[in-house]
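Please check this chain.
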Amino acid sequence: MQLESTWVARQRGEKQSTCEALTELAHERHVGVLVVGSYGRKGEKIDMLGTVSDHSLREYNGHVCIVKSTSFSPSDSTRWLFATDNSLAAQTAFAVLMYQFCKPEDIVDVVYATSGDEPAGIMKPYEQLLKERKVRGRCSCIKVPPGETISSAILNEGKRTEVDVLVVGICGYGKQKLGSVSEECCRTSTCTTLVVKDPYEVQEKRGLLGAYQ
């Protein structure tokens, strides 16, 4: 891969944590996607995020990619699993995935998990964009059985199809609690997780008008 790279060093300020120094540097450089590894706290634990990845997820204003040591082996193409609740944040995240990350040879599966009935026509916009972008994939509704959470149903689907990257969209982050589904997916997923943050929410509520320019 012929990619341009720049090595940047940052010394922590007085009473500043490594997490704070990292996100501060990423904000200064207007990094579109902050990629961090997650090995768990004080040793490998698949049911919790490491300190740096957890802080980045909550405090960084751009997208965050959390790479897990338990991810499936990469291949020439990437298999994405996009989990949607059809909210504005999810719709924005799908557009970001399709236009900024997805390659022609990739596969994108879209899932809507619910314990109720599938809303009529909910998958049509996703199917249409997959067709327009000429990307392989399928859109399906997952019925969540009694006693199982939506997030666990999504994660089980990811394991079944051996996806490389799980993609979720969120808004209302930072010091506020993340959405329960997004949080559990990030915390317990065994594959790499891409968290797409709504850029409009960033600009409107945090005043970062130049963050995505």
